[in-house]
Each structure stands twice: as C-alpha cells, then as structure tokens.
Specification:
By secondary structure, this protein is mostly helical. The chain is about 75% helix and about 0% strand.
C-alpha cells in the first residue's frame, strides 16, 4: 500500500504542477496586458468565471503552443489524487 500511496501522491503533485504551468501559459498575457489583475487571474486557477472567460477573450496575444484555454479540472484532479494518496498512506 505504501507504494500505491507514494505513486498517487507523486502523480497528484505532478498533475498540479502541470495544471499551474498550463494556467500560466494561458493567463500570463492576460495579466501582462492588464486585462485582469494577478489576484483576479489567480481565481481562474481554481474555477471558471465569466470574468475569466472575458479576460481570455480580450487577450489577442499569440499563446505558446496555441494553448488559449485552461480547465481548472486539471488542478482539482491532481489535488484529488494527492489527497487519495495521503489517505491511503494512512
């Protein structure tokens, strides 16, 4: 069980890191061009609001790797795996 728990924790942490990177690729220019303050854009990391969608729509910059959308489900899935791994560990 320790091996499963460690694997789930590592997978969850990796998924959260990828999700944060994905969010940054999507919202970096939104923050840079002041379509949304960094604090407000931070809320978009954990959930989708109309403000987040509007800020992304206003941003006309070229996104790296053509990534123009972000889903907070990636962050929550990683968090869920991390929590399950910690619970299994005991």
């Amino acid at each position: 069980m320790k091996r499963l728990a460690a694997s789930l924790v590592m997978l969850g942490a990796a998924a959260m890191i990828v999700a944060i990177g994905w969010w940054w690729l999507t919202y970096r220019e939104v923050i840079e061009f002041a379509y949304l303050p960094a604090r407000e854009a931070g809320y978009c990391l954990v959930g989708e609001t109309d403000i987040c969608a509007l800020a992304r729509a206003l941003c006309r910059g070229a996104h790296p790797l053509a990534i123009a959308t972000y889903s907070s489900l990636a962050l929550w899935a990683g968090f869920g795996l991390l929590c399950i791994g910690l619970a299994v560990d005991g």
